[in-house]
Amino acid sequence: KYIVKFKDDIARIATDETVSALTSKAEFVYEHAFHGFAGSLTKEELKMLREHPGVDFIEKDAVMRISGITEQSGAPWGLGRISHRQKGSTTYRYDDSAGEGTCVYIIDTGIEASHPDFGGRATFLKSFISGQNSDGHGHGTHCAGTIGSKSYGVAQKAKLYGVKVLDNQGSGSYSGIISGMDYVAQDSKTRGCPKGAIASMSLGGGYSASVNQGAAAWFNSGVFLAVAAGNDNRDAQNTSPASEPSACTVGATDSNDNRSSFSNYGKVVDIFAPGTGVLSTWIGGST
After folding, report:
1. pLDDT tens sequence across 93-103
2. What is the pLDDT of residue 25?
3. HSE, side-chain direction, 13 A CA sphere, residue 214
4. Which of 1, 176, 250, 273 has its CA 20 to 30 A from that of 267?
5. How far apart are CA 234 and CA 174, in angstroms?
6. Bridge partners for 259 per DSSP
7. Where are the domains positioned within the chain?
């Protein structure tokens, strides 16, 4: 069975007796969402429609199913919170797909890809810090675990890619960070990410037009960018990359649904999410 969509100007279709005959025997006729029909077609009918100037496109019918739901009991408070309307749950409910087919780049201090909680889905790609080729700090590994580890992660089947732009003390130059962003823009085109690519940046500093431009370029290339609002308890509009309009800027909340005391705020913040007392993976195979 096939779904046939007519072009918006259907005057030619309306006067075509052959197409009208096919429409009359269709299983479904569409008149409001778009103009078209669905039904069984012979090879000859299919060929005729594909060559018809009034047909926009034809696709095979397929089946949708109810999405399976998985429950993780004894979950950290943050996972319980994002999957329930009310606070206090220790159960994390998530779709069975769990981010499978999605690539997430963690632009940070690097990640400990060998951590058992990553289940072989993590890769340390590249360092832009001279002489440092691992996560000697822990922040990047913690962020990666919050994103996709099997015990503490939101998307527990996503692929995780670490790019080190911050040193083992947690600092990095704007120029080095932009180099990491430039690298990800290119690398994301080479990965098999059928569900898309995401870049996560839990870092920030004073406003930088260069950093924001790099973030905007990501967006234009199809990479979704999630950035931390910052931890300075001030308006995020004067920081980068949090102030970049195309980025999804995330502030932090505590277990009582209050803004975390350290979290930045303001009109550039798009959403708040659990950010105080978040348990996750750590370097040395620990939590």
Report:
1. 999 999 999 99
2. 84
3. 24
4. 176
5. 21
6. 253
7. 2-60, 99-274
DSSP letter, residue 236:
G
pLDDT digits 0-9 by tens, 203-227: 999 999 999 999 999 888 889 999 9
For 72, 128, 197, 208, 221, the CA distances from 215, given in Å and listed in that order, are: 34, 17, 14, 11, 10
Residue 116 in tokens? 């058992």
Name the average pLDDT for the chain.
Answer: 93
Please check whether residue 36 is in contact with residue 5, taking contact to mean a CB–CB distance below 8 angstroms. yes
Tokens of 182: 């430039």
DSSP state of 207: -
Q: Which of 178, 123, 185 is nearest to 148 (CA)?
A: 123
Which among 195, 132, 189 has a CA at the least distance from the CA of 159?
Answer: 195
**Residue at token pair 């309307």:** 85
Question: Omega of the bond prior to 194 within 30 degrees of 0, cis?
Answer: no
Q: Is the pLDDT of residue 15 over 60?
A: no
159-164 and 197-201 strand pairing: unpaired
Token output for 191? 């990965």
pLDDT at 26: 86
- Compute CA distances 126 → 100, 144, 181, whole Å: 23, 15, 11
Rounded (to 5) percent helix, strand, coil in the chain = 25, 25, 50
Residue with tokens 């429609």: 49
99-274: CATH topology is Rossmann fold (3.40.50)
Q: Are strands 55-60 and 2-6 parallel, antiparallel or unpaired?
A: antiparallel
- Could you report the per-residue pLDDT of 113-124, keeping only the tens digit for each? 999 999 999 999
Confidence (pLDDT) at 13: 61
Q: What does the block give as tokens for 229?
A: 């609002």
